[in-house]
Amino acid sequence: MNVRRHHISAAALAAVTALGLGTLTACSSDSAAAGSTDTFDVVASFYPMAFLAEQIGGEHVSVTSLTEPGQEPHDLEISAKQTAQLEESDAALFLKGLQPTVDEAIGQSGVKTKIDAAGLTSLESHADEHAEEHADEHAEEHAEEHAAEEEHGHDHEHEEGQDPHVWLDPVKYAEVAEGVGKAFQKADPDHAADYKKNTEALVGKLNTLDKTFETGLANRGTDVFITTHAAFGHLAERYGLTEESISGLDPESEPSGARVKELQQTAKADGVTTVFYETLVSDRTAKTLAADTGLRTDVLDPVEGITDDSRGDDYFQVMEANLKALQTALGAT
Fold it and tell me: Rounded CA gap, 104 and 118, in Å?
């Protein structure tokens, strides 16, 4: 049975106004040293957070990203140097739930201002039951473990199923931007007017991007698309699409034979034309599935980092390329 996404209303998490907020910076993809005395120094966990700091902070902030361009964010391990950078910074901007080692390092650090982007919008559960739970050789073992979790009161989907990829939904990303903008204004009131102006400009661009996606996907031949891992649940829900992932929320996990067979059946039943992969993760599984089912492959970029292989130089350009790829795959006219 195919999994379909349904809207799951979730209460917005606590806003960042309860935090004591410090200052942040203009994004640089290099390893600019934290601890500058001339600007507010922000350590950002990965590209979407650094991009927000750059756009909102402008010339008043200086950003160091913990995740280097081309590095898979989920795999990040914090180095001693990065831990030192955290201690010397004025603020840390991160998205709790995406990078466990970052969550731990920031939680244990003495950085004055800790801004969790996940607390500025609502996270919802888009975990694909089939992609997450199928296992060829260990199905019985998995069932026993799952039963044990239920017996002890563990809610597996609540702990692991919340989708942190909120930046791929322009509306949710705008909500995060508004929260970060308020944080900047409170942290550095001398530049509050600039932060407010920059935030309004960024939110305006994100609202325009939302309308562009809505219009561009309005007339389509199918709602279903297949991706390597479940990064696009928020985007799919926003525009009424159905994401079928090969590997679930973990981009490195291997799909079971049963999951591959199910995706082959889904592709035929729903008129799927394309299997999407991403530049920071191996495309082997996607290309194998596509070859077995006679489908095309293409890139759908989760915008977790900008590299020479990215179809654009920043968030907006890559998202516009994603829209074009989806339009082609879904038969949008």
Answer: 15
